[in-house]
Amino acid sequence: MQPPLEAIRVVELAGLAPGPFASLLLADYGASVLRIDRPHPLAYGTTSPPPTADLLTRNKSSIAVNLKTPGGHALLLSILQEADVFLDTFRPGVLESLSLAPEMLLERNPRLVIARLTGFRRDGPYSSMAGHDINYLAVSGVLSQLGRAREAPYAPANILADFAGGGLMCAFGIVLALFERAKSGKGQVIENSMVDGVSYLASMLRFARKTPLWDRPRGENVLDGGCPWYDVYECKDGRFIAVGALEPHFFRHLLNGLDIGLDPEDALKSRNDRTGWPKWRELFRRRFQERTRREWEHVFDGSDACCTPLLDQHELEEASYEQRLPIHLGRSAGIAPNEAQAWASTPLSPGAGGVELLHRWFGWKEGRDFKAAQGGLIKIEAVKI
């Protein structure tokens, strides 16, 4: 069986992080992705230009285009007239300033799905401002719930807003629009702000504020580092163990494995008294430092203590850990990365593979349908006889 998105043509305006991640998801499940890069003086010459900073380039191709020139603008319009998805990663208003307003694009290609990915909401107080993952987390309210007690809130890299609330949600929206198009025959505009995306991801955290699970200040709740049996502990060798023994059954297994001389049933009766949590934490801290991580692995291997080693990426790579696609489809599998692709990116240079892709998509030929000029491709207009 072919991948589920086979024959779907995706045009991506070059960017970083969330947009490329959305198109990577589509590409890994069979979509054909063409990235539109800015022109480069070395593009389409004898020496390739250096790769861009985008690392999420697996299964993608590129063309360099100056969208501010008539020929470059005409080329992109011609491509979009036959494309299925157009991924707009520019700030609000930029697409319109380039005479690429969604309304006009849909008039030319009513089946086109236009995905517009922004950080802040287009209609909110921050709409005209620049931002990054940490800013979107901040104004969504989510960042206020992350971090240790009596410390500043802590943003976990740029995973939540950029990738989960942005790229992943955007890809989901694209698939929804393609599904709807299969019924109506019509494309549409998708609006995805990372603020809304990460707010939606944090629905349970927001609701839990009104329950005993999360009704205390940051870092003092069950799932945010406040609970001693839902935390990370350092071992004798400086490595770490992750503990998540929330349910009574799992907590019993944890105590049995730690072998600290406590009766699990008596401990279960008293563990919900939060005034005793500091003592529990200190007890666990000291006990885990008595053995190496490997020794604790042997203790808890195969048990239901919810106690696992904290593995770093270097360890996994050294062990040739198999990186798999997030969703396995029984009849129409995606394109799984090989071992080399799983651990390192092969960055994409502007113009790499794009000419060949245009030929596969439309049968276009360089010199007949388009040509290179000043580091970018432009459309060759047909001569009227």
SSE ordering: EHEEHEHHEHHEHHEEHHHHEHHHEE
Largest sheet: 6 strands, parallel
Give the proportion of residues in helices. Answer: 25-40%
Write down the overall mean pLDDT. Answer: 95
What's the count of strands?
11
General shape? elongated
Structural class: alpha/beta
* Count of helical regions: 15
User: How are the strands ordered across the major sheet?
Assistant: 3-2-1-4-5-6
Radius of gyration: 26 Å
N-to-C CA distance: 46 Å
Low-pLDDT stretches: none
Instruction: Give the amount of beta strand, in percent.
Output: 5-15%
What does this structure look like?
The chain has 385 residues and is of the alpha/beta class. The relative contact order is 0.16. The longest helix is centred in the middle third of the chain and has 26 residues, at 159-184. It is built from 15 helices and eleven strands.
SSE order and pairing:
Blueprint: E1 9-13, H1 18-28, E2 32-37, E3 60-64, H2 70-80, E4 85-88, H3 94-97, H4 102-108, E5 113-118, H5 133-140, H6 159-184, E6 189-193, H7 194-201, H8 203-208, E7 230-234, E8 240-244, H9 248-258, H10 264-270, H11 277-288, H12 293-300, E9 307-309, H13 313-318, H14 339-343, H15 354-362, E10 370-373, E11 376-379
Parallel strand pairs: 1-2, 1-4, 2-3, 4-5, 5-6
Antiparallel strand pairs: 7-8, 8-9, 10-11
